[in-house]
Amino acid sequence: MNRRSMMAGLLACTAFPLRAAEGPFEVTRSRAEWRAMLSDAEYKVLREEGTERAYSSPLDKEKRAGTYHCKGCELPLYSSKHKYDSGTGWPSFWQSLPNAVGTKADNSLFATRTEVHCRRCGSHLGHIFDDGPQPTGKRHCLNGISLVFRT
To answer: How confident is the model at residue 33 (pLDDT cuts 50, 70, 90)?
Structure first.
């Protein structure tokens, strides 16, 4: 790949941002409704598949027992029992709650990754990698801004 085609690809990615998962979700809202309920930063992550800055979420260091819910629809997604410190700067879990999340291929950034989203409203949560602890070996690397913690 030469520099010109690489720059064109990067510009295309910024000109046409990715969108939250599409599909027959239980919770649906118009773009205006999502914009009204989310801050600009939350909208960027949940609806345009953005990524918050590493170490910016207080949920990365959250240690209390509780459940992490979707910011878009309040569906319980992850238990604190499955949370661990991955050292990446984002809240990380080795598994989700049953029937809580969906996945899809994410081919942005010149690689295929596994994107994870809320199965009820399609909001983008983060990505799943194969470098997590046992028993699953998975690391659900999430944007804290897409979560609400409840004790």
So the answer is: very high
Which strands form 76-79's sheet, in the order they lie side by side? 76-79, 67-70, 147-150
Q: What is the pTM of this model?
A: 0.84
Cα separation, 31 vs 42, in Å, equals 13
70, 73, 121, 141: the active-site residue: 141
Q: How far apart are CA 123 and CA 102, in angstroms?
A: 10
Give residue 140's pLDDT.
98
Identify the sign of the CA torsion 111, 130, 98, 70. negative
Active site residue 141: yes
Question: Which tokens sit at 60?
Answer: 């990365």
> What residues have CB less than 8 Å from 110, skipping those under 6 apart?
9
Contacts of 106 (CB under 8 A, 6+ apart): 18, 49, 112, 113, 114, 115, 127
Confidence band of 19 (pLDDT split at 50, 70, 90): low
Neighbours of 67 (CB within 10 A): 16
pLDDT digits (tens, 9 = 90+) for 65-94: 999 999 999 999 999 999 999 999 999 999
